Known about the structure:
Helices cover 72% and strands 3% of the residues of chain A. With 634 residues, chain A is mainly α.
Amino acid sequence: xxxxxxxxxxxxxxxxxxxxxxxxxxxxxxxxxxxxxxxxxxxxxxxxxxxxxxxxxxxxxxxxxxxxxxxxxxxxxxxxxxxxxxxxxxxxxxxxxxxxxxxxxxxxxxxxxxxxxxxxxxxxxxxxxxxxxxxxxxxxxxxxxxxxxxxxxxxxxxxxxxxxxxxxxxxxxxxxxxxxxxxxxxxxxxxxxxxxxxxxxxxxxxxxxxxxxxxxxxxxxxxxxxxxxxxxxxxxxxxxxxxxxxxxxxxxxxxxxxxxxxxxxxxxxxxxxxxxxxxxxxxxxxxxxxxxxxxxxxxxxxxxxxxxxxxxxxxxxxxxxxxxxxxxxxxxxxxxxxxxxxxxxxxxxxxxxxxxxxxxxxxxxxxxxxxxxxxxxxxxxxxxxxxxxxxxxxxxxxxxxxxxxxxxxxxxxxxxxxxxxxxxxxxxxxxxxxxxxxxxxxxxxxxxxxxxxxxxxxxxxxxxxxxxxxxxxxxxxxxxxxxxxxxxxxxxxxxxxxxxxxxxxxxxxxxxxxxxxxxxxxxxxxxxxxxxxxxxxxxxxxxxxxxxxxxxxxxxxxxxxxxxxxxxxxxxxxxxxxxxxxxxxxxxxxxxxxxxxxxxxxxxxxxxxxxxxxxxxxxxxxxxxxxxxxxxxx
Amino acid sequence: xxxxxxxxxxxxxxxxxxxxxxxxxxxxxxxxxxxxxxxxxxxxxxxxxxxxxxxxxxxxxxxxxxxxxxxxxxxxxxxxxxxxxxxxxxxxxxxxxxxxxxxxxxxxx
Lengths: 634, 109
């Protein structure tokens, strides 16, 4: 069965070709069936592979498909890696991806068939590249997937390409990703230089012999790639703008694909990171800073998708905090639970937007609890999960990261807990403003509010169930002792996490109890306060003043980037265009042309038609040749 | 006789030919000047041929004869060329009733 792993990325690729090429010939229902069916097929294969991988004593396998790059002593095969980590990610990507495809068939029903086909082909391509990314057995194959998801995010964010603002958002995502990709690429080259190979197993085997400086450089460059893909400081601003795409696309980008790539890559490279403590510090600090910064911005956003986008950035920050403090399993665990509840939140938001006829401003919502019962319940469960209320999934994964951070340095824990409180606050502000209180939209909107069709609510329900129970695969040790269970995920992933040391779990039990109690209590109180504060929200146009205003404007980070990077670059481009290009290169090229024309006009006069002149010229030139030959050239 | 005499004579003939071609306008005279240049070269060829084989002249009566033979070939070819050239000049006279080369300035077009 393991040998058939190539089928997993192949199915979505076939779906991409069918939908992309046949989008004018196929009906919408057929496109939907092909698009979702291919991902479902991948999911089935992934399940079969997973069932094999989860057996006790499974050894990671590499499936060689064909040689890819071969020169000199360096050989980079096109090979797929099947182990615990990639099997887990396969399940997340294809499982959540399938639900999002299913949801899209209903959400996008207003599009005409040709655009519908385009949408599903992009979606399938996205899944294909993401699968390639997690399946690649070396950094080069991973890089192909890495670039591919960047391309697909561009295509999907700019899906409604007639809108300039959306196109700009797409370009922003692409360019910011490219900045990070450069770091990744240099890291791969450095790796090949250092180890003579980019294959995971070989690199990790030789890593302990390499110098710390080289490892730190490689890992920092890899992290630069991760900041672009996974939206960390300083390259996070593209993700909130990525809201320009259709809502299921946001769900796909935020939950199953794309942003988890960076976390996956670092978790995959855990051996390298564990050997480079400086990089780990950088990762942890960047992650924590991102978590807090994004959370503060999310507090004041009024667009339902923007709030969720910043919450993704913030949650990704937690994952990087986990990676930075050596809790690789915790980070992967959080990727998994986050995929469930963030997909659920986005799809729920999509359901709300669908019901509200493309209204995204939560100030104009409210009181949707009765009108959208399924969306409401599932959204509430997702909010509880992301806020970290036990026993929902987010609690366990976030707690594992925070406890690991505490073991590393208590300061990290307290700051992280502060961020978790902010998370609870903005999520319940969002929940209360959307579903509680009274309706604040127009009468016409109120008339049209309706629950979404089954194709949209079924994924919501499935994801809600997963969000609720997903955390039980990784119970904290203190519960495991009482219940006689163990940390299934930790156990499952241990073969691929050689880099993880034992320090992640050295908090003594009494401290852990106290920390858990404090965090649960604080988060619970925050949730209730936020919900109560905003359930009686009344719409007002007055903009917040002072710090709230800075938060609403995202701390002016976009403006800052605009001033220090975009404008100088534009000026430079203007300079090159109008000075170097027009006055330099153009002048040179035109000058050559003009000189030839001028000399041609003058030389033309020599052609008089008089034979005598020609002969005279001939003799004169012969004489000149003789003079040169005999007197000048010695 | 030293070879220099031949060379100077040959150069003088050649230069007379060149000046004649450049300065005269009558096609027939130009033609004659061309022949003059040709024969200057022939003279040169014979002289050099003789000089080249001067060491063998005592033993071999026919030494250097190939150079002279070559000159005969050139004369034959020149005769053929003259007949063609004269035919062109005759045709030219029939068309423009003149053998003045300055009338022939149509090469421009």
